[in-house]
Each structure stands twice: as C-alpha cells, then as structure tokens.
Amino acid sequence: MQLIDTHVHINFDVFQQDLKALQQRWQDAGVVHLIHSCVEPSEFSSIQALADCFSELSFAVGLHPLDAAKWTPTSAAELLTLAQSDPRIVAIGELGLDYFKAENQQQQMEVCRGQLAIAQQLNKPIIVHCRDAAAPLRELFAEFNNLRGVMHCWAGNPEETQWFLDLGFYISFSGIVTFKKAEAIQASAQMVPSDRLLVETDCPFLAPVPKRGKRNEPAYVRHVAEKVAQLRGISLETLAAQTTENACTLFNLNLN
C-alpha cells in the first residue's frame, strides 16, 4: 500500500531534531511521497535543502494569505524565477484567502490574483488555503481560465465543496476530518468523486485522532486515510490507491 501526503511543512523548527526518524516513520506507514508547501519565498532554500536530503519530496513555492503584507512590487518576478528554478517544484502555493479575523481582505485578493497569474503562465497546479472565504475565492477563480489545483486542508460544507469540484479542483482532507464534531467536513469527504480526492497532514498542525494534541507528522496521514475510507465505505487499500493516483496526476509525479 502506498500513500502520498500532499501537504507538509517539515522545514519548521519542531522537526529539525529528528528528521531521519521522521522519515523512517513515514516509510513504515507506507508514505512514498510528500508535497512540501511553502508559506513564503524566504523558505525556499530550506525546503530545497530538504528535497536534497529526501528523494521522496516534491515542493511548491508561494505566499500564504496570512503573509500577504510581505508582498512587494518585485514579489511576482521573484516567485516566477523561483518557480522555474528547480524541476522538483510541482505547484504554486500555498496561496488563497483567509478572512478569519482579517482586515486586509483586498490585499489578500491582489496577492492571490498575482500568484494565480504565475500558475497560469507556468501551467502549474495551485495549492489553495481557504478559510472563511469560499465565496470570494470562487469569484476570483472565475477570472482565470484553466486553473487546476487542490483545496488543501478542506473544511468546507458540501455546497462549498461542490463549487470547487465544478471548477475542476481536487479536494484534500486533513486530520480535521477525524474530529468528532466535523460533521460537515465528513459529509464533504463522502461526496467527493474518487478521482478528485486527496489526503494530507498539514503537519505539524492538526494531528488526527488518535494523535490529536500531539505534533503532527507525515506518518499520520494513514489515520486520515483510514477515516476517509471508513466514511466512504471502502477499504484503506482502495482509498490509498485512489488518492495516490490522484496526487500523481495533479502534481505530475512519477513514483518509479
């Protein structure tokens, strides 16, 4: 059985003391590939160094909406250059909108729009962060043609889920789907077509049950996959095969 964790942040300081042990645990759990997201371009060198150490790592480059204030007049050109600098870069992101307690909604919109243009220019998928902003993000995506990507760490209800499915996006579920009160997210996990479904950890955040409250790590994507398989009434092996194939399709991965 093979699993792909489609969203990790293992460059964070909490992992620096046990990276090799971390790798052993994800390999023992059947995780054969990881997609490392990028919060801001200054992380690029640290993520690239991890990819040098771990052959099963691909990565993205982008600016998180909560860091939108770091966007400058030269950011678009810098991102475009970085995105073309390494063949292991498989996506732009994470980008998106986060309107939870946000006072810079217009700024976030412009920063996201700039990154969407880069993704379109390079024909790369996007990794999308969306919190309390599904409707405006849907409207923003409608400005572009042929966008593709994944709604990561998805926490939307079935209606919102259908919006992004209709736009051609993949939907990725994290440890949140294992939480007892996540009924709407669990309903979304049941309705996503099998060819649009992905799983992730978003580690070190949001560890799934039964690891909730602990530091999350790539090996725990197995718990996410188990819960999604249970919700969909299929075996873990079937779910793993589907989501691995989907990740390979979206991010143009070759596991051989």
Counting DSSP H or I runs of 4 or more residues, the number of helices is 9
What fraction of residues sit in β-strands? Answer: 15-25%
Strand arrangement in the largest pleated sheet: 1-2-3-4-5-6-7-8
* Average pLDDT reading: 97
Q: Largest beta sheet, briefly?
A: 8 strands, parallel
Topology:
Layout: E1 3-8, H1 19-28, E2 31-36, H2 44-53, E3 57-61, H3 75-83, E4 89-98, H4 105-122, E5 126-131, H5 134-141, E6 149-151, H6 158-166, E7 170-173, H7 183-191, E8 197-199, H8 221-232, H9 236-251
Helix pairs in contact: 3-4, 8-9
Characterise the protein shown here.
The protein is built from 9 helices and 8 strands. It is an alpha/beta fold and 256 residues long. The chain has an 8-stranded parallel beta sheet. The model has no long low-confidence stretch (mean pLDDT 97).
Keywords:
256 residues; alpha/beta; eight-stranded parallel beta sheet; 9 helices
In short:
The chain is an alpha/beta fold and 256 residues long. Helices cover 39% and strands 17% of the residues. It has nine helices and eight strands.
